[in-house]
Design a protein that fits this description.
The chain is 18% helix and 36% strand. The protein is an alpha+beta fold. Belongs to the Nudix hydrolase family.
Length: 210
């Protein structure tokens, strides 16, 4: 990862012919609804879905376990051009052809954070943005065993053009820290991350006994 020298700046937005698009294409779906009425729907479709895994991407929910520190999770902050903002997310990435979701999760987590991890669980296939896209993903929960003598985060293995900041957050502070990030200028917390943290907070503070 090269050293940051300026804030990202969008210089132009233009129409993109689908024949030139590398990652997504735009399609029109024609269908008949539940009452027999013919309808249409515009949908963005990924061009890169891995056949073996059957999913586009994985996100890595994670817990860092240290012998003398409270359990924590690692989040990433990166600039996302579609939003022209920095997003706060869990590490995530596309599944390569021939990979399983588990294999992609371990590889991507190592690349983005520098940590080795072990897979704890894998979710069913989930819709990423069902009103706009057929994109899907799986949430892979991973665990990182951090050595007692660990003082610095390991070196990331980022590709050219990737600028990803990693932040370790104690799980007890997870929800409150995301709320604070959301107040920052030009910063948006990813929905799936906030939903997870909000669910944790709700389970701990609700009046319903659940």
């Amino acid at each position: 990862m090269s050293t940051k020298t300026q804030e990202p700046l969008i210089t132009r937005v233009s129409d993109l012919p689908t024949s030139e698009a590398r990652w997504v294409t735009l399609k029109k779906i024609e269908y008949v609804d539940q009452v027999g009425k013919a309808r249409t729907w515009e949908v963005a479709m990924r061009k890169t879905r891995a056949a073996k895994a059957g999913v586009d991407a994985v996100a890595m929910g994670n817990v860092l376990v240290h012998p003398s520190r409270p359990p924590a999770t690692l989040i990433v902050i990166q600039y996302r051009p579609p939003l022209d903002a920095y997003t706060v997310e869990w590490p995530a990435g596309l599944v390569d052809e021939g990979e399983t979701a588990e294999e992609a999760a371990v590889r991507e987590f190592k690349e983005e954070t520098g940590y080795d991890c072990s897979v704890v669980s894998v979710s069913p296939v989930q819709a990423a943005d069902p009103g706009m896209s057929n994109a899907n993903m799986q949430l892979v929960m991973v665990e990182v065993q951090v050595p007692e003598e660990d003082r610095e985060q390991p070196q990331q293995r980022l590709e050219d053009g990737e600028h990803i900041e990693t932040v370790i957050v104690p799980l007890a502070e997870f929800y409150d820290r995301l709320v604070e990030y959301a107040k920052r200028p030009r910063t948006i917390v990813a929905a799936k991350l906030f939903h997870f943290a909000h669910g944790m907070n709700f389970a701990q503070t609700n009046k319903y006994g659940i």
